[in-house]
């Protein structure tokens, strides 16, 4: 029987203790958010701080719905995030496939320009983008949030790198010999092979779109098209802020992205670690 050294046991205990501590620190903000959302606003300044949930969560949620049309905002956010994610997955993977596996003039130069554009802050394009959306007549329309973000440099870069490492050239050559067109190669061979990459990019895109605040605030003024982040902003009063009500609404707004992450967490981790072990 192999004997385990005491130092090995101590190392495992220290490692798992560290993981438990990091997990607790990660979960605590969500727990604290629920605690304040289920208490009165005065609990946020209480000392010692409240650590046990109260019984006013439903009451605070009712106040949220009395102040804003929260269900409509949730539906708007889900529609925008789902549509945007589907568009990003399709167009970015298509462009990533072209950069990774197709030879065309200026490919490396275009890819270098694309990567360089990632260093430009998105805020610099706020005014030109607003002028274009205004000229198109898309203000107060969800298209104004969906169309500008339907493809992005990071998504193309991510899919290009993933396809380069996950799809062997020999597989594509075999498809060409069988008579597949370029798009058929992409759809029938590349797409099934990069599902973990899809899951990773999809979660990042969905969460980014769900939490986006600045651009929707600029182009969506009508309350009927407000997303959930703007609805939460509208809960702030001019002279008084009901933090319990705001955080109760924040808990409700956070649940969908937590569910999405839990559903696709396995594929997300697989996509991040793909290629780390040969």
Instruction: List SSEs in N-to-C order.
Output: HHHHHHHHHHHHH
The SS-based structural class is mainly alpha
Write down how many β-strands occur, each being a DSSP E stretch of 2 or more residues: 0
Low-confidence segments, ≥5 residues, pLDDT <50? none
Shape: globular
Portion of residues in beta strands equals: under 5%
Description:
- The chain is mainly alpha-helical.
- Helix content is 71%, strand content 0%.
- The chain is built from 13 helices and no strands.
- Helix 2 crosses helix 13 and helix 3 crosses helix 10.
- The longest helix has 32 residues, at 6-37.
- The chain is globular, with a radius of gyration of 24 Å.
- The two termini are 32 Å apart.
- The mean pLDDT is 85.
Gist of the model:
By secondary structure, the chain is an all-alpha fold. It is built from 13 helices and no strands.
Provide key terms for this protein.
0% strand, single chain, 278 residues
What is the strand and helix layout of this fold?
Blueprint lengths: L5 H32 L19 H11 L2 H32 L5 H11 L8 H11 L6 H4 L6 H14 L2 H9 L4 H12 L1 H17 L2 H6 L8 H6 L9 H31 L5
Helix pairs in contact: 1-13, 2-13, 3-7, 3-10, 4-7, 8-9, 10-13
């Amino acid at each position: 029987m192999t004997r385990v050294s005491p130092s090995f046991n101590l190392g495992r205990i220290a490692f798992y203790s560290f993981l438990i501590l990091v997990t607790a620190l990660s979960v605590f903000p969500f727990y604290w958010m629920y605690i304040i959302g289920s208490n009165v606003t005065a609990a946020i300044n209480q000392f010692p701080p409240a650590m046990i949930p109260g019984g006013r969560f439903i009451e605070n949620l009712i106040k949220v719905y009395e102040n804003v049309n929260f269900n409509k905002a949730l539906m708007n956010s889900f529609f925008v995030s789902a549509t945007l994610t589907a568009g990003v997955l399709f167009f970015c993977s298509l462009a990533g496939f072209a950069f990774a596996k197709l030879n065309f003039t200026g490919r490396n130069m275009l890819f270098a320009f694309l990567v360089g554009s990632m260093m430009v802050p998105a805020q610099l394009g706020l005014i030109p983008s607003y002028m274009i959306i205004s000229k198109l007549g898309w203000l107060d329309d969800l298209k104004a949030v969906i169309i500008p973000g339907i493809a992005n440099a990071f998504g193309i870069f991510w899919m290009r790198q993933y396809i380069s490492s996950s799809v062997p050239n020999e597989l594509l050559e075999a498809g060409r010999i069988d008579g597949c067109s370029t798009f058929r190669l992409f759809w029938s061979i590349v797409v099934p092979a990069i599902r973990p990459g899809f899951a990773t990019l999809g979660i990042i895109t969905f969460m980014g779109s769900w939490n986006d605040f600045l651009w929707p605030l600029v182009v969506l003024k009508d309350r009927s098209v407000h997303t959930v982040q703007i609805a939460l902003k509208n809960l702030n009063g001019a002279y008084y802020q009901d933090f319990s009500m705001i955080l109760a609404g924040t808990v409700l707004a956070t649940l969908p992205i937590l569910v999405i992450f839990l559903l696709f967490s396995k594929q997300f981790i697989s996509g991040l670690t793909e290629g780390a072990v040969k």
